[in-house]
């Protein structure tokens, strides 16, 4: 990691419930949380946004949300994010089939038409050399109302923030799910 985490006792007391929640959910306090928490108000804002996007009453099904977060994480080469989000996707899907096929989702029969449209939208937002076309938006709106499209877009944007943060700071995978991150293209491959 490019920036070390501080000792847990050095963070403000008001962040302890966030850390307790992570420890309960994942078995440990996660390194990205400790990095964000170096700026406590920033951590609180990011945690609140994540809580809104991953709430039970979201119009986006949990498995679809996880599919999005893994794909964005793969594109951004975030080892930590692929690891933790793949674990969540595998739990929500009941197996690792979609996790393992996600690199080649266009050619896979495991993904529904709706999932493929969402993955196309996800990639159109995440890759900086692509744009969301009116045709793609039309396909998306066949499956989602306007509020759900806004939430979907917010989730994709949030995962880009999170995975780019973790990738830039070289946060390693923690061994939650045994899947690999697609290899970064070398300059000769680009």
Summarize this, please?
The chain is an all-alpha fold. The chain contains nine helices and no strands.
Secondary structure elements and pairings:
Layout: H1 16-26, H2 31-36, H3 40-53, H4 62-75, H5 79-93, H6 97-101, H7 113-126, H8 134-141, H9 146-168
Helix pairs in contact: 4-5, 4-7, 4-9, 7-8
Describe this structure in words.
The chain is mainly α and about 190 residues long. The protein folds into two domains: about 40 residues, no CATH class; about 120 residues, AhpD-like (Up-down Bundle). Helix content is about 60%, strand content about 0%. The protein is built from nine helices and no strands. Helix 4 crosses helix 9 and helix 7 runs antiparallel to helix 8. The longest helix has 23 residues. The two termini are about 25 Å apart. The C terminus is likely disordered.
Task: Note the run of SSEs as H and E.
Answer: HHHHHHHHH
Computed over alpha carbons, the radius of gyration is 17 Å
CATH architecture of the largest domain: Up-down Bundle
Could you name the CATH class of the largest domain? Mainly Alpha
Average pLDDT works out at: 93
- Give the overall shape, derived from the CA principal axes: globular
Number of E strands: 0
Count of alpha and pi helical runs: 9
What is the total domain count?
A: 2
Uncertain stretches of 5 or more adjacent residues? 185-190
Largest sheet: none
Per the CATH scheme, the topology name of the largest domain is AhpD-like
Euclidean distance between termini CA atoms: 26 Å
Q: What structural class is derived from the secondary structure elements?
A: mainly alpha
Proportion of residues in helical segments: 55-70%
């Amino acid at each position: 990691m490019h920036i070390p985490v501080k000792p847990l006792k050095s963070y403000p007391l008001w962040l302890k419930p966030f850390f307790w929640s992570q420890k309960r959910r994942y078995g440990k306090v996660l390194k990205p949380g400790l990095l964000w928490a170096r700026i406590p108000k920033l951590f609180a804002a990011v945690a609140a946004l994540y809580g809104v996007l991953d709430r039970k009453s979201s119009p986006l099904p949990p498995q679809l949300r996880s599919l999005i977060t893994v794909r964005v994480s793969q594109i951004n080469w975030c080892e930590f994010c692929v690891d933790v989000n793949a674990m969540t996707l595998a739990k929500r899907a009941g197996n690792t089939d979609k996790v393992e096929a996600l690199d080649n989702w266009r050619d896979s029969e495991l993904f529904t038409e709706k999932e493929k449209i969402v993955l196309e939208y996800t990639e159109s937002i995440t890759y900086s050399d692509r744009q969301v076309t009116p045709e793609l938006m039309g396909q998306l709106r066949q499956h989602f109302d306007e509020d759900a499209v806004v939430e979907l877009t917010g989730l994709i944007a949030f995962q880009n923030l999170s995975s780019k943060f973790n990738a830039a700071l070289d946060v390693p995978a923690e061994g939650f799910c045994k899947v690999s991150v697609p290899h970064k293209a070398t300059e000769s491959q680009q």
